[in-house]
């Protein structure tokens, strides 16, 4: 399920719908943290994706 949310988030990011992208990345992150933990590579990728969205919105402080 997390992978599906990540793919939907990525598609929305590419379409420029940043709020929807963040929504799906957040759903993905919740699942990944519960199953894989906060130190997993999958969780890191999702956090990176969320950072890219925030940077695209011009919010560098949130991106970091």
Description:
By secondary structure, this protein is mainly α. The chain has a single domain, classed as Tetratricopeptide repeat domain (Serine Threonine Protein Phosphatase 5, Tetratricopeptide repeat), CATH 1.25.40. It is built from 4 helices and no strands. It has helices at 2-15, 18-35, 41-56, 60-63. Helix 1 (2-15) runs antiparallel to helix 2 (18-35) and helix 2 (18-35) packs antiparallel against helix 3. The longest helix has 18 residues, at 18-35. The N and C termini lie far apart (26 Å).
Largest sheet: none
Q: What is the CA–CA distance across the termini?
A: 26 Å
CATH architecture: Alpha Horseshoe
Give the CATH topology.
Answer: Serine Threonine Protein Phosphatase 5, Tetratricopeptide repeat
State the domain count.
Answer: 1
Classified in CATH, the superfamily is Tetratricopeptide repeat domain
Strand content: under 5%
Average of pLDDT: 96
Instruction: Give the structural class.
Output: mainly alpha
List low-pLDDT spans.
none
User: What is the CATH class name?
Assistant: Mainly Alpha
Q: What Rg, in angstroms, do the CA atoms define?
A: 11 Å
Structural shape:
globular
């Amino acid at each position: 399920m997390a992978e599906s949310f990540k793919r939907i988030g990525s598609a929305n990011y590419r379409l420029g719908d940043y709020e929807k992208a963040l929504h799906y990345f957040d759903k993905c992150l919740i699942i990944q943290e519960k199953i894989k933990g906060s130190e997993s590579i999958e969780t890191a990728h999702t956090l990176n994706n969320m950072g890219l969205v925030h940077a695209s919105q011009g919010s560098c402080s949130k991106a970091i």
